[in-house]
Amino acid sequence: MQTEDSQQEQFYSVTQITSLIRDLLEGEFFGITVEGEISNFRPSSTGHLYFSLKDEQSVLSAVMFKNRIFGLNFKPADGMVVRAKGNISVYAKRGTYQLICESLQKAGEGELLALLEKRKAKLAAAGLFDKERKKPLPLFPGRVAVVTSPTGAAIRDILRVLKRRNAGLNLVILPSPVQGEGAAETIARQIRRANEFNMGDVLIVTRGGGSLEDLLPFYEEVVVEAIAESRIPVISAVGHEIDTTLSDLAADVRAPTPSAAAEMVSASRLELEGRLTTLQHAITEALQSRVERIRLLLSQFTPDNLVRNFQIYVQPYALQVEEARDQLVLSMERLLVPCRHRLDLLSQAVITNSPLAVLERGYSVVSSERTGQVLVSSRQIEPAETVKIRLHQGRLRAEVKEKEE
After folding, report:
1. What global pTM score does this model have?
2. Which of 53, 59, 133, 201 is most buried per CB count within 10 Å?
3. CA distances to 228, 251, 354, 357 from 360, in Å
4. Quick one: 11-107 is in which CATH superfamily?
């Protein structure tokens, strides 16, 4: 029989079902990459980016918080196809889900960057980026050749800087498209033409900022090879300061902007005069200071100073020698006292055990004159033989009359 409780239907609250959905989505869709077209792009006043990703059939809400925007190298806009990497998050209050973007790049840009990295490694292995190939810039170039678009912002920036600095340089512009199809070949051809006809003391290859696709000609091998082969020193000033193209790596000098390249080749005459004056004062002061130090050093080498300094220098060592000598004498005395005592004991023992001391007490040493042996038994001698007798003082010769066993 079923109870009333078992017959009741199970139910969820809105919060419970939303939490279950959130746990499911956020757990399963973490670190995913979604490709789609940006629509309804709306930056907020707080710095966050709100937009949607769509394709032919669906739309996905997305947000990129401002602390992640610094990594973007392009400005998102409606209609742009991108790849967004991030996590699916559920907004419980509205019952909606959205993609929290950690990074954003144009569709196909990842493959392009990988291709450019491979090309960079190839050219580096060929030695086109080696520091040993770099040539110094001339200090006072008289003529500067510029490979760029004659209608672009880069040439206007260069002309403005040269006018302001009143450099008095001869400027040769070699026109070339700086983006699009055929731009790389034209840029390389103009670089080689500048070298062939010696059109400048310095060669600037430049263009203004742009997207990665806009800067692609300056990643092409033909441009990099032309820059590396150039006899004229090359300044590469491509894009903004944060952009670093392969032409920058191959050039003798990289300038962060076209204006900076113009500054490098147009040193102001007044600025140079100021630098020379400063260097002159610095050299004069350094020489005077060194001469004064030498004079002070020489003043110490008078005869009296030399004697005094020598004594001051030698005195500590002399004291050390005296102390060492006294210590050596003391040590030797300490070693000799027990040795002298032992010598006295040994001398006394020698005297006590000496045969001469025995003779002094009235004993004598008798030996056979015939054999020279010392006699210790009467068996060693026969009557009528001659013996020698050693006394404490003097010697005797005697004839044996008889012997007793």
Report:
1. 0.49
2. 53
3. 117, 116, 10, 5
4. Nucleic acid-binding proteins (2.40.50.140)
